[in-house]
Specification:
The structure is a single chain. The protein has 88 residues and is mostly helical. It has one domain. It is built from 4 helices and no strands. It has helices spanning 6-25, 31-52, 57-67, 69-86. Helix 1 runs antiparallel to helix 4 (69-86) and helix 2 (31-52) runs antiparallel to helix 3. The longest helix has 22 residues, at 31-52. The protein is elongated, with a radius of gyration of 18 Å. The chain starts with 5 loop residues before the first helix and ends with a helix.
Length: 88
């Protein structure tokens, strides 16, 4: 990482900010809203399980994974851009 020039680092951060801006202005939920929705999905499932007196960790894991899939894809895209810029 020490070989990264300052202008390359600025380019990476600029791309990330650009993607965030596009994502937020394309009708998608804001990062805070996505996080709140993710937390709510898991907590709702926990409440339902508690009411039924069951504990299904696989179900909670699945709900969490599905709920965070978009965020994971976005993080992968950003990491891919960093890799392309920094490997040259």
């Amino acid at each position: 990482m020490n070989d990264v020039r300052q202008d390359e680092l600025y380019e990476c951060v600029g791309m990330e900010l650009y993607l965030t801006h596009i994502s937020n202005n394309s009708g998608g939920a804001s990062p805070l809203r996505r996080r709140a929705d993710h937390i709510r999905a898991v907590l709702d499932a926990q409440d339902r399980q508690r009411a039924l007196r069951i504990r299904d960790l696989r179900e909670l894991a699945l709900i969490s994974r599905v709920s965070s899939e978009g965020t994971c894809l976005r993080a992968h895209s950003i990491a891919d851009m960093y890799w392309k810029v920094l490997k040259n």
